[in-house]
Write a structure and sequence with these properties.
Number of helices: 11
Organism: Perilla frutescens var. hirtella
Region (Disordered): 197-218
Helix content: over 70%
Biased composition (Basic and acidic residues): 200-209
Protein name: DNA binding protein
Distance between the termini: 48 Å
Length: 218
């Protein structure tokens, strides 16, 4: 699916395939982690309004989700898990208070060891999906052309693109958030990878059966 596509029905269909895309990755832990990130964590954060914050334990689970859905980098999880809880609460509280200024919000979070702009974006997206989308590799590639630059400047450009796309797709009857756009892009990319992997597996199995038949004929 191209980022420029104006087909609301296609975007809706791709977004609705998100849960099945998560399941098709074959990572059992990711299913429960995704439920935590998309459902439980947002509720916890908003229960703390008007002064929301995230705890070290919650940030660690968020990091597990991020790494499970993307590239596994256990060192980052180790850094985050060892953070002082009071420091995490203070930094995240300042970040949430800075919204909708995503640049300032990300800067408040990246003072934490192990938390870069991508992880910071995941924290912000859990609280304000209508403002700050998660900076996933898949969405970055589709929206900006690559996922090599994880700087704050690049994230701000990413946010602008995702907010503009969400506004374009939305109508009085149906609202798309920047986070909806990110999940749709991730679903499309993940689905393509699963299909490619399945096709490759089928081809290998077919070649194996063909070779076995040839051996029996001899």
């Amino acid at each position: 699916m191209e980022f420029k596509s104006p087909d609301v029905g296609l975007w809706r269909e791709t977004l609705l395939s998100y849960s099945s895309a998560i399941q098709n990755l074959g990572k059992p832990d990711l299913i429960s982690l995704d439920d935590f990130y998309r459902k439980e964590l947002p509720n916890l954060l908003h229960q703390r309004d008007p002064d929301p914050y995230i705890t070290t334990a919650e940030l660690s689970r968020l990091m597990e989700w991020k790494l499970a859905r993307g590239k596994w980098r256990p060192r980052l999880l180790s850094f985050v898990s060892s953070l002082n809880d009071a420091v995490v609460r203070d930094a995240s509280g300042k970040a949430f208070a800075a919204l909708p200024d995503v640049s300032k919000a990300v800067s408040e979070l990246t003072v934490l060891k192990g938390v870069g702009p991508a992880t910071a974006s995941a924290v912000l997206a859990a609280y304000a999906p209508d403002v700050a989308p998660f900076m996933s590799d898949e969405a970055m590639v589709t929206a900006l052309g690559d996922s090599k630059d994880y700087s704050l400047k690049r994230y701000v450009a990413f946010v602008e693109k995702m907010q503009a796309k969400a506004k374009e797709l939305s109508s009085p009857d149906e609202i798309f958030t920047p986070s909806d756009v990110e999940r749709a892009l991730w679903s499309c990319s993940a689905g393509a990878k699963v299909r490619a992997s399945s096709t490759k597996a089928d081809r290998v199995e077919s070649e194996h059966l063909h070779k076995s038949k040839r051996k029996r004929k001899r």
